[in-house]
């Protein structure tokens, strides 16, 4: 989809030209899964794919939401508070505008908003965070609100938690807002301190393989895992002065194993603490330019998500395990919340085409329908395009 097509679509929808164009990428998490809501370290990066928002003020007093990827539309009068409207996509931007209004930054006029995304929906690339952050970034400029980029990240996390009703952490919004070209963000989800870590891809590319098994976070076992982690934390707090599971390392956890009597809860907390340790190791090996060791940590991460956290599934395992055996691949794992969605792999650029064909054939024979295979670079975060 080129810029001209987007502008033509806006004019067709609303009968006027767009006044501004904004873009926010999606993200993949390279390593550090299911620990963002446990105060741990994650290592996401922004990707090439994302969400465009074209916008213009109107004189109708209405917010008019249109999406080129979705049939649902919404025309709603500008007001001082808004409520969630069913389960449609436009709740993500509506929630942002609601929280702006609650903070005293109400809209004084109507706006026409057209969204277009080239990310596969429900794939785990954070299309929802991309929509939220591009909306917040846009209105922060238009309303001349005083929010910093970090304020916008916190606000859009509240949209996800309070307006949408998903107990997600802050990683997705942070990654798509602060992403940097060729760098991963090692983010402390508790303090929000981060370090931009060079990812020396060299002759390798980032392959994103969508299982094409959609999943809805709010209806998946995501909230169940959050509750299991909270149960583990309460048990450990009997002897340890911690506020989050990721305040301890694997050694300290094993010394206090007697506090966790439920085998399932033990598996969950083991994954969280060991995965947090893996992120620290990942930053060290990337700083040394050792992509091979980073790939090995990715594979350990997948194994843990499969066996201890149990958020993978036959689709993701088929992709990750096939990729791990494939010549020219040095690391592969599921990424995102799991239960479908995407896996990622570090693939030698010279074999990407054959890898893409071979994994499509293998997966289709094993699962019964095709995956989608994409190639991405590590990209910049949210920005105004024109």
What is the count of structural domains?
2
- Unreliable spans: none
Strand content: 15-25%
Structural class: alpha+beta
Organism: Mucilaginibacter robiniae
Family: Belongs to the GHMP kinase family. GalK subfamily.
EC number: 2.7.1.6
Subcellular location: Cytoplasm
Can you walk me through this structure?
The mean pLDDT is 94. 47% of the residues are buried. Helix 2 (91-102) crosses helix 3, helix 3 (127-142) crosses helix 5 and helix 10 (314-325) packs antiparallel against helix 11. Strands 1, 2, 3, 4, 5, 6, 7 and 12 form an eight-stranded mixed sheet that branches. It contains eleven helices and twelve strands. Strand 9 and strand 10 (342-348) form a beta hairpin. It has two domains: 3-196, 2-Layer Sandwich (Ribosomal Protein S5, domain 2); 199-376, GHMP kinase, C-terminal domain (Alpha-Beta Plaits, 2-Layer Sandwich), CATH 3.30.70.890. The longest helix has 25 residues, at 263-287. With 386 residues, the chain is α+β, with helices and mostly antiparallel strands. The active site is at residue 172. Its main location: cytoplasm. It is an enzyme of class 2 (transferase). Pfam families: GalKase_gal_bdg, GHMP_kinases_C, GHMP_kinases_N. InterPro entries: Galactokinase, Galactokinase_bac, Galactokinase_CS, GalKase_N, GHMP_kinase_C_dom, GHMP_kinase_C_sf, GHMP_kinase_N_dom, GHMP_knse_ATP-bd_CS.
């Amino acid at each position: 989809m080129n810029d001209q097509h987007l502008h033509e679509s806006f004019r067709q929808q609303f009968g006027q030209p767009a006044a501004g164009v904004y873009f926010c990428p999606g993200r993949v998490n390279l390593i550090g899964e299911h620990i963002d809501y446990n105060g741990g370290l994650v290592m996401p990066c922004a990707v090439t794919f994302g969400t465009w928002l074209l916008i213009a003020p109107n004189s109708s007093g209405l917010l008019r939401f249109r999406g080129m990827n979705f049939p649902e539309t919404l025309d709603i009068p500008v007001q001082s508070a808004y409520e969630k409207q069913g389960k449609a996509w436009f709740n993500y931007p509506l929630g942002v505008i609601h929280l702006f209004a609650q903070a005293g930054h109400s809209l004084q006029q109507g706006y026409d908003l057209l969204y277009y995304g080239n990310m596969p929906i429900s794939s785990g690339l954070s299309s929802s965070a991309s929509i939220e952050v591009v909306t917040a970034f846009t209105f922060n400029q238009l309303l001349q609100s005083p929010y910093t980029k970090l304020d916008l990240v916190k606000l859009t996390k509240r949209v996800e938690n309070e307006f949408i009703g998903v107990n997600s952490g802050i990683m997705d919004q942070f990654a798509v807002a602060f992403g940097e070209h060729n760098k991963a963000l090692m983010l402390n989800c508790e303090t929000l301190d981060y370090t931009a870590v060079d990812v020396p891809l060299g002759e390798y590319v980032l392959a994103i393989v969508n299982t094409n098994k959609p999943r809805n976070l709010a209806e998946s076992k995501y909230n169940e895992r959050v509750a299991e982690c909270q149960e583990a934390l309460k048990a450990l707090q009997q002897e340890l002065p911690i506020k989050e599971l990721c305040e301890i390392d694997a050694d300290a956890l094993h010394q206090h194993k007697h506090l966790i009597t439920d085998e399932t809860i033990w598996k969950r907390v083991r994954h969280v603490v060991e995965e947090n340790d893996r992120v620290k190791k990942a930053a060290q090996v990337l700083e040394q330019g050792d992509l091979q060791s980073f790939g090995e940590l990715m594979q350990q991460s997948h194994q843990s998500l499969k066996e201890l956290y149990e958020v993978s599934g036959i689709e993701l395992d088929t992709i990750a395990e096939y990729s791990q055996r494939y010549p020219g691949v040095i690391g592969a794992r599921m990424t995102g919340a799991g239960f479908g969605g995407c896996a990622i792999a570090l693939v030698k650029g010279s074999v990407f085409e054959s890898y893409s064909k071979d994994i499509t054939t293998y997966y289709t024979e094993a699962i019964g329908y095709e995956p989608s295979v994409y190639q991405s670079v590590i990209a910049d975060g949210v920005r105004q395009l024109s």
